[in-house]
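[User]
Protein folding is very new to me. Any chance you could explain this protein sequence and its structure tokens? I have pasted everything here:
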Amino acid sequence: MNPFDGLPPDWSLEEHDLATVLRLTGDWNACETGIRSAAEVERILDEAGKKTLRLDASSLGRWDSALIALVKTLRDSACTRRARAVQIDESGLPDAARRLLALAAAGTTEAASAAESYPSLTTRVGEAYFDAWFKTVGVAALVGETALRGAAATVHRTRTSGVDVMQCVREAGAGALIGGAVWPFFGGQCNV
């Protein structure tokens, strides 16, 4: 064995009065995990029974996302597949692992609340109405400005470059195409 190789990942269960201890040893890396199947996770939770499952990482070597994935799988299985959820005590994990697990739990909560906050039909209809209303107001404002400047345009006192007209059309949106097409007929001169 190469002296730079870590210890292989392993786990063991120990029964105590109030808790079952899951002792994690070795290096828990993504390329080599100590728990390889859902059946092993179920076995751990079955052996914990109604006691608290305490995680002990005092003999843990190097670790990465494999450790986080294990604890997350234990959490999910403990909560979803059992009549009575098994309590998991994560105080024996490294601080960094507990922080990552807290972030993972927060992300799950936010995703669940985002999925629940889908707008109702009434809200979507209202939003579509106000969106259409604001576009109509924008087109009306463009037409109004065009009409107000029509008098000056008829006596050839305005000079508008093509770039300015195109900028106004872009800002007003598709509804402004009519106004942009009508502008030259009011005597507006486009200096390119």
Q: What stands out?
A: Strands lie at 10-15, 19-28, 52-63, 88-92, 160-161, 190-191. The CA atoms of residues 73 and 123 lie 38 Å apart.
